[in-house]
Amino acid sequence: MISPHALELAQTLVRMNTVSHHSNLELIHFIRDHLASLGVASRLTFNADKTKANLFATLGEGKPAGVILSGHTDTVPWDGQEWTTDPLGAVVRDGRLYGRGSADMKAFIGVALSQAGQFLHSDAPFAIHLAFSYEEEIGCFGVKELIADLRDAGVRPLACIVGEPTSMVPAIAHKGVYRYKCCVRGKEAHSSLTPHSVNAIEMAARVVGRVRDMAEGFERDEPRFEGFDVPFSTASVGQFHGGIADNVVPRDAEFRYEFRDLPTANAAQMQAEVVAYARALEPAMHRVAPQAGFRFETICEIPSFLGSKDDEVTRLALRLSGEPQTTLVAFGTEAGLFKNAGIPTVVCGPGSIQQAHQPDEYVSLEQLARCEAFMAGLARSRSLG
Ligand SMILES: [Zn+2]
């Protein structure tokens, strides 16, 4: 059974609207004040306009190093979704806690917070760090600031547990998510005078074709990474806009695309290939219109994650969850960023990704109880592995 205190904290967090484009400061201040009541200070790092913050706190100050419990405070929106319950209601019904962010991933944060007193007075040889970020859902922007702040402050965590919903099965790999926008500037003309124009849609389409060719190449040639639903890297174009009339050669076109690269692949190289292909088209465009060309914007770059069965933190997560083996997940998380900062990391949290981002999102109380037992076990741990 989940304790009333942990459930109440999870409900309190769900009731706060922290959709990614909103401020998360109400929630961050609530956590800061809760920790302050235990005598624990929080480090906050803000976004540029100070409307959002990450929170980092250490329970067990003075111990040589600590294990991070990492969660993001933002949620996806629910516009247009058919909910039968209030997304901010945090209603408990039929053994489930309903609400936006219940599974992804406020319940994890609530349970972690409910154990703060235990972590504080634990005899474990390591401290517990709480690391709660903003803007994970739109590109892991907050946690990049948080990790940079830790580096600058000389904090060197031992390990990290990212509490994304894995049904409490420790996950040691996921693909990366790299999204870009390509804006194409051509030169308009009456469509009877095409030689004097640069057709932005047609130029964009050539690059789109290249992305498609690359996707087919991954499927054909890439060494398989077994365990993923799609065991090779993928590429796809998600949006395409351009053109104003049938008889006007379009001046502008724009498309957005993504790569989901295997942990063994290299998304930077993929993007470089697209850019190089586009650049090679530009000289011909410039002969008609010097201002024509391609402009690329990065939307988000979330690195893939590859942990290890042999990492102490993975063995710890297996022991605490009681699961016999690790898994892989299909979604992106902050894990690759922690790992790339030199911190051994595992992903393990309550609830299922099946319910995340969906109408009537929920996390079962059974999962919450398992998460609470995991955390209580962590507080009682005598060693990491
Ligand atoms: Zn999430």
Automatic annotation (TrEMBL):
EC numbers: 3.5.1.16
InterPro entries, per database record: AcOrn-deacetyl, Bact_exopeptidase_dim_dom, Peptidase_M20, Peptidase_M20_dimer, Peptidase_M20A
Chain segments annotated as transmembrane: none
Ranges of residues in domain Peptidase M20 dimerisation: 172-283
Highest rank taxon of the organism: Bacteria
Keywords associated with the record: Cobalt, Hydrolase, Metal-binding
GO biological process terms, semicolon-separated: L-arginine biosynthetic process
Annotated protein name in UniProt: Acetylornithine deacetylase (ArgE)
